[in-house]
Amino acid sequence: MHASAKEVETEIRDQIDKAIALGHGPTHIDTHMGTLYGSAEYVKVFLKVAEEYHILANVIDLSVPEVAGKFKQQGYPINMDVIKNVGEYRLPKLDNFTSVPKGIVYKPKPNSLGIFPHHISRSTFHINRIALRVCCCHSPFV
Fold first, then answer.
1. Is the separation of the CB atoms in 47 and 59 below 8 Å?
2. pTM of the predicted model, to two decimals?
3. What b/e string do you get for 116-128 counting C-beta neighbours within 10 Å, with b at 16 or more?
4. Phi-psi region for residue 3, left (φ > 0), alpha (ψ -120 to 50) or beta?
5. Are 49 and 59 in contact (CB under 8 A)?
6. In contact, 56 and 28? CB cutoff 8 Å
7. Tens digit of each residue's pLDDT (9 = 90 or more) over 21-54
8. Rg (the chain; Cα; Å)
9. Phi, psi of 69, rounded to the nearest 5 degrees
10. Distance, C-alpha 34 to centroid of its chain
11. What is the DSSP code (8-state) at residue 95?
12. What H or E segment, with its residue span, contains residue 28?
């Protein structure tokens, strides 16, 4: 790892602030193929910033040993510090996540939201609010 956790935090904040300044209301933040899982300190700042901005982080619930084990097998450095950081994250988490290698790429439909469903670990105010926006065709920036 070449960047400090502080540098990673600054970069995450700068990207979110830039999106907001451009008039976008980010609905979630992502680790770009899990790169922020390279360090427990990166995970900690990623989740801290998500909570401070009240933006969902694309984070997997690692409290289930089989799920944590799957990601360890894939080469992610999942250790007890990472599991602890994810466990302390207060916004909704994904139950699991997988990629589809060599999957068919579809052309996006005009005016589509460009989302796909996730099975969320638990129903919360934030998830219900997102579901309401998607189901009722409200602006994603409400």
1. yes
2. 0.68
3. eebebbeeeeebe
4. beta
5. no
6. yes
7. 998 888 899 887 778 888 899 999 999 999 999 9
8. 16
9. -65, -40
10. 10
11. S
12. strand 28-29
Spatial separation of the C-alpha atoms in residues 43 and 54, rounded to whole Å = 16
Q: Which two tokens stand for residue 74?
A: 């894939």
User: Token digits for 72?
Assistant: 């360890």
How many residues in total does the chain contain? Answer: 142
Report d(CA 66, CA 54) in Å as an integer. 29
Amino acid at 129: R
- Helix H or strand E segment including 56: strand 56-57
Hey, what are 66's tokens? Answer: 């089989």
Is the CB of residue 84 less than 8 Å from the CB of residue 48? Answer: no
The H-assigned helical ranges of 1-142 are 5-21, 40-53, 65-73, 80-88, 125-135
